[in-house]
Design brief:
Largest sheet of chain A: 4 strands, antiparallel
Number of helices of chain A: 3
Order of helices and strands of chain A: HHHEEEEEEEEEEE
Strand content of chain B: under 5%
CATH architecture of the largest domain in chain A: 3-layer Sandwich
Oligomer: heterodimer
CATH class of the largest domain in chain B: Mainly Alpha
Structural class of chain B: mainly alpha
CATH topology of the largest domain in chain B: Cytochrome Bc1 Complex, Chain C
Helix content of chain B: 55-70%
Distance between the termini of chain A: 85 Å
CATH superfamily of the largest domain in chain A: Rieske [2Fe-2S] iron-sulphur domain
Shape of chain B: elongated
Radius of gyration of chain A: 31 Å
Distance between the termini of chain B: 127 Å
Shape of chain A: elongated
CATH class of the largest domain in chain A: Mainly Beta
Number of domains of chain B: 2
Number of helices of chain B: 21
Strand content of chain A: 15-25%
Radius of gyration of chain B: 31 Å
Structural class of chain A: alpha+beta
């Protein structure tokens, strides 16, 4: 308990850098009162235990968004398979299946649908495989161009030029009841490799991975 | 008058008896600093602190209106800009204050580095400063995200693609960053928490630690060539210097801090009033592909670096370079904790700093002009100079139409208009023969896509005919020497007999 009348002036002027040894000389020797120290340790231990018990649910809460990719995804219809003209690439948009009421416009997702034949499609994510910017389709030159760092892709999604290491990401698709459906719900990125493989129609097993196919030019 | 003075004194004494802050405050205010450090070079730290205070005040004021909801944030920013009286000005001050804070923190760091102020016993002050820098950049990035527009959305997308490259943990890290599988409402909520609670709280704590150490260890003395730092003697030498050739911090040095801080605040205010707030750009609807996202000023250099990396280097560079950079900064005071402080005797330090500064400036400048990006509307928007078509044959004109319609212009400029990704084509005929141009168009190569499948042979012929006309008046198009020889040889042969 310090004396309230202590003058602050008794402290030395603040400009000095004081070393630990200098400060130690002013200090009384450590007061060892074994019972009090034991109780203090008990207090620390109690708080540690309670802290640990509280940390478990907190960490679980923080990790809530970390889930298997599959649990975020579901099949989304992009419209009748017949509505897409063969040989053309169309921009479509759909609502993200994993959504909250306060998502606003962010739950709109776009994709490029390329219909190769009556039953064969490739559905590209609009995200450039370099850093995810939205690529634009130019039907005249049959190229996808990225506005960010100049990544360019051919019509089949393979890399044409620029910094991307690979072709465009593709969605898995199926045709159910005449509807073109894709397995969507997660932002494509280099970590969710599930989207790189186009398993699609039966009998196509072992087909080239569309997103990965080398430049055909 | 006398009565008021006495009453004030009584109130002061009443408070002081309970608060007991007079002593520590006097200590801090009157502590002696070496005379030379009362310099205009030592004002950046306090300016950074002033800007942090400005950001906190304007941030709280903006939070009175801003709605941290994915569905409403963009609308609330527009209401701030257009409906709330002077809401635009508050947004502008916060945005410009942010840019200035990043700039001043970097300048402060450069000055501290150049003056050797990180050496013994101020190593930890520097270490804390490095974390303050990281927090400043973190708060700048999260702030850009809160401006929930297209730039924010795709900027986050870049963050996703960077994190997703982390081996094994990439996917989980992306989920943690976004609060879910995509950039959406949950993402904005967590960036709001980071920007408003987590990072400012950490910043204030670290600033307190930083300032505490500056007060306890004293301001770095002016570096003199030949005055070496030695751990055994430095503290004694510094105390002697501060006492024998020192002046009280207030007012000796502090008036310069005050004036500089005031000037910086004034400049922020003028920038805000004249240049206005940043955005928001288009609404954060990812199905709108007509967008050209760009990061805010402090991150432009990264944007530029990412476009110059060869594809094979992307992942290693993105994952390793930041770790090396931060480790390098943290290591500085431990690698060189003793010795010379003066820049006159530290050529490597001066060179390193100059190199970093020049690289940063060059990359930032490049990112503002983005020569690597296609100009997405050049093909339909940029006109061809009339002189290139005045005496053109139908075939050449057809080639010019193909040149525009097939988006060649997006990457190649003519007459100064168009993309800069590929070379300008104003004089392409002097560099390449027709055969070379045909080959290049069909097969691509380098950074050029192959057009072989997208152009018919007549289209290629027309296009190359047009390109062949692109040369200066007095400089003929390039010709293949062997073909020329072959063409001239039979002619010469036929005339001899």
């Amino acid at each position: 308990m310090s004396d309230v009348n202590d003058s602050p002036k008794k402290q030395s002027t603040g400009s000095d850098i004081r070393t630990a040894s200098e400060q130690a000389s002013n200090r009384e020797g450590p007061v060892v009162v074994s019972r009090r120290w034991m109780l203090l340790k008990a207090g620390v231990a109690l708080n540690g235990l309670v802290g640990l018990a509280l940390a478990v649910p907190i960490v679980r809460y923080l990790l809530a968004p970390v889930r298997k990719d599959a649990s975020y995804k579901s099949w989304i219809s992009l419209g009748a398979a017949d509505s897409f003209p063969v040989g053309e690439t169309r921009l479509v948009s759909f609502k993200n299946p994993w959504t909250q009421p306060w998502d606003g416009e962010t739950d709109n997702v776009a994709a490029y649908v390329r219909k190769e034949s009556a039953t064969q499609f490739t559905v590209f994510a609009i995200n450039c495989a370099h850093l995810g910017c939205p690529v634009r389709w130019f039907p005249q030159s049959q190229l996808f161009m990225c506005p960010c760092h100049g990544g360019v892709y051919y019509a089949d999604g393979s890399r044409a030029s620029g910094p991307p290491e690979r072709g465009l990401f593709t969605y898995d698709y199926k045709i159910a009841g005449g509807q073109l459906q894709i397995d969507a719900g997660q932002m494509p990125s280099l970590s969710n490799t599930a989207k790189m493989v186009n398993i699609s129609t039966p009998g196509q097993n072992g087909a080239a991975k569309n997103g990965d196919c080398p430049c055909r030019g | 008058m006398q009565g008021i003075k006495q009453a004030a004194k009584r109130v002061y004494d009443w408070l002081e008896l309970r608060l007991q802050v007079e002593g520590p405050v006097k200590d801090a205010v009157l502590h002696k600093v070496p005379r030379n450090t009362a310099s205009w070079w030592y004002v950046f730290g306090s300016a950074a602190f002033t800007l942090l205070m400005l950001q906190i005040v304007t941030g709280i004021l903006l939070a009175l209106v801003y709605v941290p909801s994915g569905a409403e944030a963009w609308n609330s920013l527009n209401i701030l800009n257009h409906q709330v009286p002077l809401g635009w000005f508050l947004r502008a001050v916060h945005a410009w204050g942010s840019n200035f804070m990043v700039a001043v923190v970097f300048i402060h760091m450069a000055q501290v580095f150049l003056f050797g102020a990180y050496k013994f016993p101020r190593e930890l002050t520097w270490t804390v400063g490095v974390f303050l820098l990281l927090m400043t950049l973190g708060i700048a990035f999260t702030g850009q995200v809160l401006r929930f527009d297209q730039d924010a959305y795709w900027g986050l997308g870049i963050g996703v693609f960077i994190l997703s490259r982390v081996p094994l943990l990439g996917g989980s890290l992306v989920h943690l960053l976004l609060g879910g599988p995509t950039i959406a409402g949950a993402t904005l909520s967590r960036f709001f928490a980071l920007h408003v609670f987590v990072i400012p709280g950490t910043l204030l704590f670290l600033v307190a630690m930083h300032v505490w150490m500056v007060l306890k260890l004293g301001i770095n003395e002016w570096p003199m060539p030949g005055r070496l730092v030695r751990k055994e003697t430095y503290i004694e030498e510094y105390n002697k210097l501060a006492h024998e050739d020192g002046i009280p911090f207030v007012p000796g040095a502090f008036w310069k801090d005050l004036i500089f801080s005031g000037a910086v605040l004034a400049v922020v205010g003028v920038c805000a009033a004249v240049l206005g707030p940043f955005g928001p750009s288009g609404q954060p609807d990812p199905s709108i592909t007509q967008t050209v996202p760009k990061p805010d000023f402090p991150f432009l250099w990264i944007y530029a670096v990412l476009s110059y990396l060869p594809p094979s280097m992307e992942t290693p560079f993105i994952l390793i370079a930041p770790i090396l950079m931060i480790a390098g900064l943290l290591a500085v005071p431990f690698v060189a904790s003793e010795g010379e402080k003066s820049w006159h005797r530290r050529p490597v330090a001066v060179l390193a700093l100059s190199m970093v500064a020049v690289s940063w400036a060059v990359f930032t400048h490049l990112a503002t002009s983005t020569p690597w990006s296609p100009h997405m509307s050049a093909w339909s928007g940029d006109t061809l100079p009339v002189k290139y078509l005045q005496e053109a044959t139908p075939l050449v004109r057809q080639g010019a139409v193909i040149f525009q319609a097939k988006q060649c212009r997006n990457c190649h400029s003519i007459g100064g208009l168009g993309g800069e990704r590929g070379p300008a084509l104003d004089a392409v005929a002097t560099r390449m023969t027709m055969d070379q141009m045909r080959y290049k168009v069909v097969t691509g190569g380098g950074n050029m896509p192959a057009y072989g499948k997208n152009l018919s042979p007549p289209e290629i012929e027309a296009l190359v005919s047009f390109l062949e006309t692109l040369h200066p008046e007095k400089e003929p198009p390039a010709v293949d020497a062997s073909q020329q020889a072959a063409a001239s040889a039979p002619a010469g042969g036929s005339s001899t007999p």
